Amino acid sequence: MTRTVYVNGEYLPETEAKVSIFDRGFLMADGVYEVTSVLDGKLIDFDGHLARLERSLTELDMDKPDQFDDLLEIHRELVRLNGIEEGMIYLQVTRGAPGDRDFAFPDAETTRPTLVLFTQNKPGLADSPAAKTGIKVISIDDIRWGRRDIKTVQLLYPSMGKMMAKKAGCDDAWMVEDGFVTEGTSNNAYIVKGGKIITRQLSNDILHGITRAAVLRFAREAQMEVEERPFTIEEAQGADEAFITSASTFVFPVIEIDGAKLGEGTPGPAAKRLREIYLDESRKAAI
Ligand code: PDD
């Protein structure tokens, strides 16, 4: 199946879409991205992803792509053209492609940002087996740069972290800095103790997850107690349960951390409940 993708104003077959070899996303990882999930053919948390994209661009002093105001329409058109019922839309903006490699940012007259979007068809996304079985994580050092609040395409270390987890027979890695968990390789991390949901507070140390914001809001609305503070791997191993959130997983329970089973070693009730509420509410609010 050839996808229809979007590049700088054009809808094209994926085999015909092209970006310059001088693109700063390719040469310097000078780009930002968003992943928005699709359920029932509709976009989940679109406004949140758009707002975070705008913030990422501002923080990096990068111009908005010329088609910024049309992004909702472009997302919807890609969903339509590719017949996506469940899946994801990947969006990337880079600082463009000046005619040569240079560390200094190019002048606005030299190039415009590159905008690329493509769909990922994932039938069964909302019914993933991992939501029922839970996932196993290992801990690794967090050696990423200091602006993790900006959603840049610098994903080599998270990618290596995923491989370390795979090698250890696990599903993902939680990153640890100064003794405390920051987040998962591509998700936010939570523990639950005595009914209280604990997750690291927002700062430059973690990505401000759009799913995180929604899940914490739903948790509070459901009278669940939420505490935003750092926690250690030891505290997590002694917790009643743990889970992760992201646009591609929604809520996945964590059943094992560095070989230590949490509680019974099966998905816990808080993660299960939050996943259900998140999916229900998000489907209702999808656009
Ligand atoms: N990743 N933390 C990191 C480091 C992430 O890469 C992500 C998302 C999240 C969760 O953010 P959100 O809830 O807005 O998806 C947290 C996406 C899904 C990815 O890279 O595919």
Radius of gyration: 19 Å
Number of strands: 15
- Counting copies of identical and different chains, the oligomeric state is single chain
| Main β-sheet description | 9 strands, mixed
Determine the structural class based on helices, strands and strand pairing.
Answer: alpha+beta
Task: Indicate the percent of residues in helices.
Answer: 25-40%
Distance, first to last CA: 26 Å
> Strand-and-helix sequence, N→C?
EEHEEHHEEHEHEEEEHEHEEEH
Q: Ranges with pLDDT <50 over ≥5 residues?
A: none
Description:
The chain has 287 residues and is of the alpha+beta class. The chain folds into 2 domains: 4-122, D-amino Acid Aminotransferase, Chain A, domain 1 (2-Layer Sandwich), CATH 3.30.470.10; 129-285, D-amino Acid Aminotransferase, Chain A, domain 2. The longest helix has 17 residues, at 269-285. The strands form 2 sheets. Strands 7, 8, 9, 10, 11, 12, 13, 14 and 15 form a 9-stranded mixed sheet that branches. Strands 2-1-6-5-3-4 form a 6-stranded antiparallel sheet. α6 (210-221) crosses α8. It has 8 helices and 15 strands. Keywords: Amino-acid biosynthesis, Branched-chain amino acid biosynthesis, Pyridoxal phosphate. Its EC number is 2.6.1.42. Its cofactor is pyridoxal 5'-phosphate. One of its GO terms (molecular function) is branched-chain-amino-acid transaminase activity.
Which key features would you list for this structure?
single chain, about 290 residues, alpha+beta, D-amino Acid Aminotransferase, Chain A, domain 1, D-amino Acid Aminotransferase, Chain A, domain 2, 6-stranded antiparallel beta sheet, 8 helices, 15 strands, binds N-(5'-phosphopyridoxyl)-D-alanine
